[in-house]
Amino acid sequence: MNELLSCQKKRVLTLTLNRPQARNALNNALLEQLAQALEQAQQDDSIGAVVITGSARYFAAGADLKEMASRDMPATLNDPRPQLWARIERFPKPLLGAVNGYALGAGCELAMLCDIVLAGDNASFGLPEITLGIMPGAGGTQRLIRSVGKALAYRMVLTGEAIGASHAQQAGLVAEVCPSALTLEYCQKMAARIAQHAPLALQAAKTALRQAHEVSLTQGLQQERLLFTLLAATEDRQEGIAAFLEKRPAAFKGR
What we know:
Layout: E1 4-9, E2 12-17, H1 28-43, E3 49-53, E4 58-60, H2 65-69, H3 73-77, H4 81-89, E5 95-99, E6 102-104, H5 106-113, E7 116-120, E8 124-126, H6 140-148, H7 150-159, E9 163-164, H8 165-171, E10 176-178, H9 183-195, H10 199-211, H11 217-231, H12 235-245
Helix pairs in contact: 1-4, 5-6, 6-7, 10-11
């Protein structure tokens, strides 16, 4: 069985996690397939945005505990998972998550790697690792507190309790809550709108937004202005302004 399904419609690539027997648990093999698919999409000019989704009941229920149980401390030190997560995070194009059902542990961490998350009204997000005698290890503590703030992040991590879609939206973890039957459709439509825009401008904007989590305001403003200035040398910037003034759709080419 192919554990990662791929389908492209116009400029949107949809990647579907497909391990139903394991509730889409993210083992190393699936993370490797996901990283490879994103790296291929990065090089494909026909792809403007990517959507990651799971099944109706499970986005991803966590890491593969059977795989994890076989690793002692030396094996964990040499685990390729940190490199796999880093490869996924480096994807420079817009990355959206369409989340239905459970997004727990590594599944929640994967959702937090997405630039925009749309959740079905049946979705739940949590980091239950503490209940297994471990803790989040793929960015959960760091990204969650930056997304939802100290109070809720501490509560979720230290109790292991999940939150529903509406709470996740109120906290800033989710951009929009949809009827669960329409989550993927809504997410693909949003991705299609995004993918119409100038590719270089999208990548620059994503870079600046991510920098905002990691640097001071002064440094972030400097980086933003640098990227803004560099875009002034692109053909797409000229095309975008000309199209606006001429009241016609822009024809961006990624140059």
